[in-house]
Amino acid sequence: MELLEGIKTRKSFRAFKPTPIPSEITERILEAAGKSPSYTNTQPWEVVVVSGKKKEELSKILFRMADTGVAPNSDLPLPKTCPPELDKRAKEHGARRFRALGIERENEQQRKELRLMNFRFYGAPCVLFLFMDRSLTPWSIFDMGLFAQSLILAAHSFGVGTCLQASITNYPEAVREFLGIPKTKLLVIGIALGYPDLEAIINTYQSTRVGLSDFVRWYA
Is residue 104 part of a domain? Predict the structure, then answer.
C-alpha cells in the first residue's frame, strides 16, 4: 500500500472477525512501529500483546468493572475542558455516530451497551497495551503517540484493522495486576487489533476531518 493512500484510508474499526492474526504479521507490524522517532532515541515504548484465553479473561475483568460502575482511574488524566471549537467537534462526532447506529441520544441503555463494547475489545482477536516508565516526561507521551500511529498504519498496510482504545485504560491497576506489570509502568493506550468485519453497521460510520484552513497558518 502506498504511504499517502494508507494515511488517507486508515480508520478506526469497532467490529472484528474472530480470525487470528498470524504471529509473523504481528511481528512485522511491531517491527515497523519500532522504527518510529523518539526524543534523543530513547524509544520509551513497551508493548504487551494479549490474545486467546488471556484476552478473554482480561476482558471479563474489565467488562465487569465498567458494567458495575467502578470509577475510572486512568494513569493519564482525562481533559476536564476543551476549547469550544474542539468540544463542538467531539459532540458532533458522537451525535453522528449515534445516528449511524440508529441510537437515540436519550437512550441511556443503548449508549451504555455501545460503551461496554470497548471492554470486549470490539471482538478483536488481539489487543495491545502500550506502557512507558512512569518517571518519563511529556516528551515521551509524544513519542508514544508517534509509535501508536506507526503501528496502526503498519497494520493497515497488512489489511489488519485497529482501534485506539482510551476506555480500556480506565482501570490501569487491574490491567497491570492481571499482566504482571509493575506499578512503575504507566498505561498509555490500548489498541484492538484484528481483521475488520466490513459488514458490521458500526464500521460503516466515517468520522469527518476539518480542512487545512482550520488548522494551518501560512507565512512567507
Answer: no
In angstroms, rounded to a whole number, what is the distance separating the alpha carbons of residues 102 and 86? 25
CATH of residue 74:
3.40.109.10
Would you say residue 40 lies in a domain? Answer: yes
Helix axes 52-67, 172-179, angle to 10 degrees: 150
pLDDT at 170: 97
The pLDDT of residue 104 is 82
Q: Considering the domain boundaries, does residue 96 fall inside one?
A: no
Residue 87 lies in a domain: no
* pLDDT tens readout for residues 121-163: 999 999 999 999 999 999 999 999 999 999 999 999 999 999 9
CA-nearest of 127, 153, 148, 128 to 44 is 148
Q: What is the pTM of this model?
A: 0.95
Handedness of CA 163, 20, 45, 116 (dihedral sign): positive
Number of domains in the chain: 1
CA distance 89 to 70: 28
